[in-house]
Amino acid sequence: EAECQGGRGLWGRGVVGGSGLRADAHIPPSVLREWPPTSESPVSVLTLHHNFADQMPGFYVPWEREGFSDPTLIYFNDALAIELGLDPEKLKEKGAQLFSGNVLPEGAQPIAQVYAGHQFGGFSPQLGDGRAAMLGEVVDPQGQAWDLALKGSGRTVFSRGGDGRAAVAPVLREVLISHAMHHLGIPTTRALAAVATGEFVRREQMLPGAVLARTAASHIRVGTFSYFAAKGQAAELKQLMDYSISRHAPDAEKAEIPALALLDATSLKQAQLIAHWMSVGFIHGVMNTDNTTLSGETIDYGPCAFMDRFDPRTVYSSIDRQSRYAYGNQPGIGQWNLSRFAETLLFLVDSEQDKAVELATATLRAYSAHYGAAWLERFGAKIGIQASEEDRPLIQAYLDLLELHKVDFTQGFRRLSAVLRSGDVAVCGLFPSEASFAGWSEVWMERLQGDPDEIADALDRVNPIYIARNHRVEAALTAATGGDLGPFEELMEVLADPFTQREGLEDYEGPAPSEFDAEYQTFCGT
After folding, report:
1. What is the rounded CA–CA span in Å between residue 314 and residue 408?
2. pTM (2 decimals)?
3. Of 68, 161, 184, 385, which has the fewest Cβ atoms less than 10 A away?
4. Which range (153-167, 278-292, 345-359) has the least confidence?
5. pLDDT digit string (tens) for 83-139?
């Protein structure tokens, strides 16, 4: 520890974090609304808008950057920059200073947003951005606004005693997993850049520090509504609802009851998102209401993981001791979180509470239908059919077979195309005997309609061969923490095309050794 603090190693010098406000600290309205002046010149290679800051006073605290001694750009997403209408080369020239928060883009008004959250079922009335700062919005060539935020950039009023910083491994973990999710076609926040700060942070040991720059359709969460509902701030809730509708559900503005239309639109997005998670074996690990977005994007890649051997009870998160957020529980937790959202909207639904509850409950019931349809669509495609409700037993029977024989989830679906092309069940090779698979496959093949080779090609377009395997992720992050970014960069390249089998990448196809998977845990990045 003394060596880290006193000298300059591969990643820089050591620093120790300090104090913050208590979790229940009151934030006076005057503090929420004031804006601090800045004396440094903005960086003109990136121009930001600040619509949220302008339109939503009272929903954030201005953020004052601390700065880092020797930042170095260690990752930059050229493709995302181009999608946003930005010049990657110019951004990279300024990237270390810009994405560490040392200097600000033109138009930036950095803020830490306030929100509450139900954490593992218990309500925390005030959370907020404890180690994140939203700089503003980038407007892409299509006219869509995207939040640009820093994570690990230092303390805010919401840091609750933490240092507000992040280590290299959790930052690159979010880069890796969000990259994998994006290329799997799953809505997600995305990493634009990662910067090594040149300083160390103290966790269980001294670790090299880093900052993540990420984009999101917005950072509005169920927990954002919960914060103002808990305080009984009706005007602020109405303002937040109107802003959310304009940004994420414009059709709801014309509805007879806009609050119900927003609830239904959010339910549909969450149902489709979770069904997509389920179809690739993704386990979020911390599905608290502060991680449930109105945009329908996946956010917060702390204790998340992809499941290897199929088991609906799978939990990797070290903090999920009651298995609340196990793989098989995720659809139900989605509905639970939306119920908390519905509670915040009741007075906007109807002035008579009983009627408001009745209407909101009826709207929430649609979540099950939304999820059921999305699940059938995803899993039907995974076995090569356009599924109806009558096909649910066929899909479930295959999942039961995977669970019974502890078959790898990803390979279990990917090998179906090889079986079709060969017409030989032995090609699957994942079950203890051909007979274990043959009974189901016979019924499955009778259900298929069309040319087997064309169906096999379609299967390969929806069933990935490469996912962010836990042992590969950990190996890449361990190497990166030691200063070697080679394994991280190689894994990023593999995950950029998860559906196309490539020679030389056989080691990336299979699950972790059983002894690794049995002991594997993931942790919050804090």
Report:
1. 12
2. 0.91
3. 161
4. 153-167
5. 999 999 999 999 999 999 999 999 999 999 999 999 999 999 999 999 999 999 999
Strand duo 282-283 + 166-167: pairing? unpaired
Mapped onto helix, strand or coil, the DSSP state of residue 55 is helix
Other beta carbons within 10 angstroms of residue 232's beta carbon come to 9
Cβ-proximal residues to 488 (8 Å cutoff; 6+ apart), any chain: 172, 176, 476, 477, 479, 480
469-482 per-position pLDDT tens digit: 999 999 999 999 99
Tell me: the pLDDT tens digits for 498-523?
A: 999 999 999 999 999 988 888 888 87
* DSSP states of 341-362: HHHHHHHHH-SSHHHHHHHHHH
Contact 76, 95 (CB under 8 A): yes
| 221-232 pLDDT per residue, tens | 999 999 999 999
Q: Mind spelling out the 3-state secondary structure of 166-234?
A: EEHHHHHHHHHHHHHHHHCCCCECEEEEEEEEEEEEECCCEEEEEEEEEEECCCCEHHHHHHHHHCCCH
SS3 content of the chain, % helix, strand, coil (to 5): 45, 15, 35
Q: Which residues are catalytic?
A: 290
What's residue 72's pLDDT? 97
Backbone angles phi, psi at 473, to 5 degrees: -60, -50
HSE, CB side, 13 Å, CA atoms: give it for residue 383. Answer: 27
Q: Which of helix, strand or coil describes residue 267?
A: helix
- Strands 72-76 and 190-202: what pairing? antiparallel
CA 65 remoteness from chain centre: 25
Q: What is the largest CA-CA distance in the chain?
A: 73
The amino acid at residue 272 is Q
- Gap between the Cα atoms of 370 and 366, Å rounded: 6
Q: For position 23, what pLDDT does the model report? A: 32
Query: Would you say 41 and 48 are in contact if contact means Cβ atoms under 8 Å apart?
Result: no
**Nearest CA to 159 among 270, 91, 61, 238?**
61
Residue 198: C-alpha distances to residues 166, 438, 481, 484 (Å):
12, 57, 12, 15
Task: Give Cα separations from 344 to 287, 360, 521 (angstroms).
Answer: 18, 10, 34
In the prediction, which pLDDT does 526 show? 53
| Type of residue numbered 146 | W
| Token output for 426 | 């032995």
Position 303 scores a pLDDT of 92
Stretch (H or E) spanning 438: helix 434-447
Beta bridge partners of 111: 62, 134
